[in-house]
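Field log, afternoon session.

UNIT: design team B
ACTIVITY: writing a sequence onto a fixed backbone
BACKBONE:
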């Protein structure tokens, strides 16, 4: 059967040059598919499928649209197929209210339920062309989670128009629709996101922090957490800071609740070591807990630390170290 996205099939002439041109778009396509799907692993699969379809059809690509527009048409259809009939991914705060006085991490859900973090390094999702001029909002975990509340086609329209800078006509070409329908979908998508923002449980202020401030706060956070200095940690947290623990449904709000959790049920994290990395445009750390015999440290969690103004506003903890640590280039263990 002929693929509807691909103008032809077969091995294209000059396939090495064609492959090089296609590969030049892989990084930004992965960023797009990640936002569409909420999973870096699914995004990489979607981009690989996009590349295969494009390579097979490149021999008859007629050039009526740009190569970039054509690739996004294929990637969009791959993502829409992947999203058909499935539940949206979420963060713990999208599923339930904050815990008060929690003594256990709560229910465990399958990995397919959660928004996943992505690294900023060369092996995964890189910066989209328009992202350098953006505020960073489009890569935050909260924004990616909010996107999942949009109908898939609305999600694609908003990303193509407002993150990637496509014109309404280009988006219409991507989706095989009209400019009027694109503008209508964008208006509806904006309304849904505005409503999500107004009722968001992430109540901490979104004032951006400069890179130097963000890095300094991250360094102070790492020192406080590694030393398990609850006083120092409390001074860094915004009063309405949040902490979540995927794949558990538990999340909490407020520096007092976070401190009580760490000093109580999570006291086993005392003595952990943190290895810095970056996720979703924010400072992140691979957390390693000491082995019982003191012989070294084993992976425990990936922490994504969001900073606004002069305070830490969110700590997203991901326990899927088996998949995430290799993706982030984190070592499999640390020596004593």
């Amino acid at each position: 059967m002929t693929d509807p996205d691909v103008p032809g099939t077969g091995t294209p002439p000059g396939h090495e040059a064609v492959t090089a041109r296609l590969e030049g778009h892989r990084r930004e396509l992965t960023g797009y598919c990640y936002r569409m799907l909420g999973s870096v692993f699914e995004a990489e699969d979607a981009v690989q499928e996009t590349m295969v379809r494009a390579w097979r059809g490149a021999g008859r690509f007629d050039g009526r649209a740009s190569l970039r527009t054509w690739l996004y048409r294929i990637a969009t259809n791959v993502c829409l197929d992947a999203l058909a009939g499935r539940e949206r991914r979420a963060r713990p705060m999208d599923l339930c209210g904050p815990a008060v006085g929690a003594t256990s991490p709560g229910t465990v859900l399958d990995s397919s339920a959660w928004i996943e973090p992505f690294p900023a390094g060369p092996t995964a999702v890189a910066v989209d062309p328009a992202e350098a001029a953006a505020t960073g909002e489009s890569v935050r975990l909260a924004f990616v989670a909010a996107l999942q509340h949009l109908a898939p086609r609305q999600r694609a329209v908003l990303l193509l128009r407002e993150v990637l800078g496509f014109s309404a006509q280009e988006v219409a070409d991507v989706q095989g629709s009209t400019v009027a329908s694109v503008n209508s979908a964008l208006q509806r998508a904006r309304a849904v996101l505005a409503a999500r923002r107004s009722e968001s449980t992430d109540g901490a202020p979104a004032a951006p922090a400069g890179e130097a401030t963000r890095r300094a706060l991250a360094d102070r956070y790492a020192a406080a957490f590694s030393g398990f200095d609850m006083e120092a940690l409390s001074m860094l947290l915004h009063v309405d800071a949040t902490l979540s623990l995927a794949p558990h449904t538990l999340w909490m709000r407020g520096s007092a609740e976070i401190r009580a959790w760490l000093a109580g049920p999570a006291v086993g994290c005392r003595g952990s070591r943190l290895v810095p990395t970056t996720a979703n445009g924010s400072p992140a750390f691979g957390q390693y807990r000491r082995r019982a015999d003191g012989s070294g440290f084993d992976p425990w969690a990936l922490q994504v630390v969001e900073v606004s103004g002069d305070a830490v506003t969110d700590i997203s903890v991901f326990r899927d170290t088996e998949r995430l640590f290799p993706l982030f280039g984190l070592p499999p263990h640390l020596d004593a």
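LOG NOTE: Confidence is low (pLDDT under 50) at residues 7-13, 121-135, 201-205.
NEXT ACTIVITY: expression trials, pending approval
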